[in-house]
Design a protein that fits this description.
419 residues; alpha/beta; four-stranded parallel sheet; 37% helix; 16% strand; globular
């Protein structure tokens, strides 16, 4: 129904979620499907704020008889306003898409930076599916097609089929081993309107995705935000204090901290990074509950030489066995689905980020360019906003970048156009 994506491009803290809820409540001539990466927003914030404005959302839940996807389908077929996560959207099938189109849904997708992600299907499984005529790959677009239309999604390769049937699964031209999963263009096509809430859109993977699928881009200017991007950057300058100790500068000049560096580093080198994080905590007089850091998850563990005994990693539990989230110190570099760490005051970033190899191979195979720096900056911003800069507070957040490149990228972005 639409080949135009309306983009509301504004930084975190601008009030765009609040503004779009207000907008939806005033335009209820068609049903709304609101999709968010944050379970907390789906379960509480969005439906509660919408309810205050006379807009009622159905929140799909699993019951004894049906899955979340089944209950979501029924609500879509009835034309109800629906609020769900991106993860649930990935379980949609052709019946969900038919309902979206038939009921004329307006769709809002909130802050999904990575519309294209690497997909892990090992070579033996891929070869099995190809040799048994269960898969084919379109030579021009790279789209993976599952040829058994009747196979259940609960079967062994049901996950592959579900993504292929939605037009979400693609392979790179130069090698089919580089596979990606992406937002289904069919969901955009079926919508009456598709509004994307994001930030730093220009040059992003999101913009590249839309160009690849020949969507028109239209700025969404029908709401008034709390703050402009310039005002938010000014606030960040006032609320961030950079930590630049001799040990941090030594790491910056000594190690690249890319994924390949972490893979090939010795136990002693990885331990040096954990010691630097501990030193930073001591310098700023921060406890574990005040601190969060990031690095490649598989290598920031004791078995790989990375010493977590004093800087922490996994959260503690209370006497009833419940997780105490504030005590979690390791937070993945792509974390975006929570506000649970908004009281943390020290952020240590120890990962020099680049796009996933499969994603880059696929995009370049389609004749498009991947901007490594914009990808890294957007991921970094997403991660930093897990901390206390989300909150309205006079207290500064201490920030340490152990990668020289990441340090320069962030500071150059922050200072650009500042008067």
């Amino acid at each position: 129904m639409t080949k135009t994506v309306e983009v509301l491009d504004a930084l975190m803290g601008s009030g765009k979620t609040h503004a779009i809820i207000e907008y939806m409540s005033k335009h209820q001539d068609r049903p709304w499907l609101y999709i968010s990466p944050m379970l907390e927003e789906v379960d509480s914030r969005v439906p509660e704020q919408a309810d205050e404005r006379g807009l009622e959302f159905f929140i799909p839940e699993e019951d004894d008889l049906r899955t979340k996807a089944d209950n979501c389908l029924e609500a879509l077929q009835q034309g109800r306003n629906v609020c769900c996560t991106h993860n649930l959207m990935y379980r949609f099938n052709k019946h969900h898409l038919e309902a979206i189109e038939r009921q004329g849904y307006n769709v809002v997708s909130d802050e999904e930076l990575n519309l294209i992600n690497g997909y892990n299907l090992n070579k033996s499984d891929f070869d099995f599916l190809m040799s048994n005529n269960l898969l084919s790959v379109d030579e021009d677009t790279g789209r993976v097609i599952f040829l058994d239309e009747d196979m259940s999604l609960n079967a062994k390769y049901g996950d592959v089929k579900a993504r292929a049937d939605l037009g979400m699964l693609y392979a790179a031209k130069r090698s089919y081993k580089f596979m990606v999963v992406q937002l289904s263009p069919k969901i955009i096509d079926c919508a009456n309107r598709f509004i994307l809430l994001t930030y730093n859109y220009e040059g992003s993977l999101m913009q590249t995705f839309l160009k690849m699928h020949k969507y028109k881009y239209l700025p969404f200017n029908e709401v008034k935000l709390f703050k402009t991007n310039e005002e938010i950057k000014k606030d960040l300058l006032e609320r961030i204090e950079f930590v630049e100790t001799p040990s941090i500068k030594k790491i910056q000049n000594k190690y690249t901290l890319t994924k390949s560096w972490w893979v090939n580093a010795s136990h002693e080198e990885r331990k040096e990074i954990s010691k630097c994080i501990l030193s930073t905590m001591k310098t700023k007089n921060m406890k574990k509950e005040d601190t969060f850091y990031t690095a490649p998850k598989d290598y920031a563990v004791k078995q790989k030489g990375f010493d977590t005994s004093r800087i922490g990693s996994e959260p503690q539990t209370d006497s009833d066995g419940n997780t105490i989230e504030i005590t979690r110190t390791f937070i993945a570099c792509n974390a975006r689905s929570t506000n649970k760490y908004a009281d943390k005051r020290l952020a240590v970033h120890a990962y020099n980020l680049f796009p996933n190899q499969s994603v880059k191979a696929f995009i370049q195979g389609q004749g498009f360019i991947v901007n490594d720096d914009i990808f890294a900056l957007n991921m970094m911003l997403q991660w930093l906003f897990r901390g206390c800069i989300r909150k309205k507070s006079t207290e500064k957040m201490q920030v340490a970048f152990l990668s020289k490149r990441m340090n320069m990228l962030f500071k150059e972005w922050l200072m650009k156009n500042q008067k």
